[in-house]
Amino acid sequence: MKKTKILLGLLIAYALNGCSLFGETEPDLPPPTQIGANTIGFKVNGKNWVPKDEAKFVTRPKMGAGANWNQFIFSITAVQIDRDNKFQSTLDLDLYDFTSYKKYSQISMVYNNKWSANNKQPWQLTISKLDTVNQICAGTFSFVGVAADGSTVNITDGRFDFKYSKE
Q: Is residue 147 part of a domain?
């Protein structure tokens, strides 16, 4: 009986510590907000992906001038780190010639520096909010990333909400 109580107590402590009997619990995706919450998340082949610590591992987006000073580039880099602070994966999201609300001439969405969005596979990017006064940009994205070796990865349910800085 005493061993059962100890075992039960250890199981409860383990569960309260945010762990699962079957490994770590999957992190929740951030809600799709439009307030400059500095969040990003998406699913990779159906599994949730979020940075470990968004304040530390997400490059604050910048709205900077391109070759033509009337054209802008909006860029986000998000990195996922494991519990031992080892690199796991990254997402790069860039909008080129971002001249006005919901308008851009080119995008680049790359997962793990290997799988890229291209015009032969489905992709979607929607800017749901662009507030140039408060410097907030929010939106959703998804794409089928294709690697040079022909392998693919499905990025779905992507959302981001950032305050950006001007260069």
A: yes
